[in-house]
Amino acid sequence: MAALAVTALGVVFGDIGTSPLYALKECFHGPHAIAVNSVNVMGVLSLIFWSLIVVVTVKYIFFVTKADNGGEGGVFALLSILTSAGPKGPPKKIARLLPYLALCSGALLYSDGIITPAISVLSAMEGLREAVPEMGYLVVPITCAILILLFSLEKYGTARIGRFFGPVMLVWFLCLGVVGLANIIETPGVLMAMNPSCALRYFQVNHLHGIIVLGTVVLCITGGEALYADLGHFSSRLPIRNAWLSLVCPSLLLNYLGQGALLLRNPGAAAQHPFYQAVPQAFLLPMLVLATAATVIASQSVISGVYSLTQQAMHFGFLPRMRVVHTSSHTKGQIYLPTINTLLMMACIGIVLVFRDSGGLAAAYGLANTGAMNITTLLYCAMLYFAWKWPWYKVLPLWLLFSLFDLPFLGANLVKILDGGWLPMLISLLFITVMTTWKAGRLRLRECFERMSMPLSAFLRTLREVKIARSPGIGVYMTINQDLTPMPLARTVALIHTVPEKMVLLSIHMGSTPYVEADKRLEVDDAHKDLGLYRMIARYGYMEHPNIAEIAEKSKATAVYLPLYDCTFYLGRETILASKEKPVMQPWRRELFIALSRNAWNAITFFDIPSSRVVEIGTYLEL
What we know:
It is a single chain. This protein has helices at residues 2-11, 14-17, 23-29, 38-63, 75-83, 92-125, 127-131, 139-153, 157-186, 197-212, 214-217, 224-229, 238-265, 274-277, 284-315, 338-355, 358-387, 392-414, 417-452, 456-465, 487-496, 548-554, 587-599, 603-606, and strands at 325-326, 335-336, 469-478, 498-510, 522-525, 533-540, 567-577, 614-622. By secondary structure, the protein is of the alpha/beta class. The strands form two sheets. The chain has a six-stranded mixed beta sheet with strand order 5-6-4-3-7-8. β3, α21 and β4 form a beta-alpha-beta unit. The protein is elongated and about 95 Å long.
């Protein structure tokens, strides 16, 4: 457990662990900064203290992380629990809305995955201006170089990275605590900030401006969503809970209070960098190096969460197929997606070159997190009520407690749209457009296939009544609907007037659970074996990767064995044309869908089908 907890430091808590680099600084030095005086400092510290306690500790650690779906976390895990409730679940109108809520939350997490590496590394490197002012011009180039190095390490997997990153983060959190404690000892009165009356006094003095600054206070809890999304990288939630309660939370609280103590003694430190000002001069360069390492690790925790989210989105039909590399033979949730890795790296470097300063990115950062946090609260409370059957009088107080923080944080960040909040909104809009276009396009294609396909019963009747030549071997036809004749099978009969000796209609079903037990993997219907036709369903969870070799191996114990050396896989290759009648999709969406289709991994590569055993048959479809 101790080893897992240290690994969790490197995988899960990097994002929230590096927030002290910029959170308090932006409250007193950002575009909506407030004056540095005792009321404001104590008030902001009180807000930070209670945000960490209520939002992260109570909401995520004690409640939301319990809502795992077979060990997996994230908004799609919540969605799976809700949809698996069946008829006793949410009403139809609410059920139709839930996938789009999860979609919006996922899109916001993508924007978080782009902004986090940029702001984390950039804020750490800004310490170079404090330590060696004449080298300040190197901040942006070094940041870009570090980001390139970070994304190049992702292919080695969470387990290897966690073993290296965990001890580094252990040192980082210990240093945070020690630096904070040293400053608190000099100004012990700062501990009074734990009294919520300091926050109330702050709002009384600052009124509306005090509420706007909440959009910067929220930076102290960034990483809560990534914490939940990274749940699948561990066998249980216990390592995450234990690491947070024993080290992460106390270290963060000490450091924030320590920075506040510095500002009470020296208000002018807010104009510079309070985090580095709190560090003794002799340890400034070592702390800069450690901060840089910590921000690289912070970025990795969000990136791994984006990988998990992408795999789930693919299996729910929101994204096209792409390469998934499993980096651990022990933990199924540890994956790497080269395509997403490259896109994230290019986007991160791009926004660093545009903004060039962590202050500009801070406004963008908060909106993505607060939007995702509000959606998680809604889905979680819906899950408690509809899936776990909690009574409303238990769910309502939880929703009120969580919303007491979530809604004001979101409202305060909406004010900062012109200051940089437009960036996560733009990124999220792009991802939502891509995901809804892909989902709608695949649905239209499925409808086209079903209209064009012959009912299987009619095909079976033809086999009985008409003598069709048989070729030796096994023909495997991949299909979605087992009640329809696969298009390649019908085209084979029409074009070459022959069918294989054995025909297997293979469907791969992605379930609402993350993993499927091995003994439930295959289901075979041999009701038509007299005609040489078998129907086979292979079931996989949304965190698993379907593999034809595994299916072939499992088929030994079924009514039809699929030796790869004797199987021919008949696949359809669709060519999409513009409809001559009224198009079912707008022209720009159709072009986007066609571009996504061309760049998606085909079934041969995605399912690891031996390419020498494949026959592709083309079909024209109109959209």
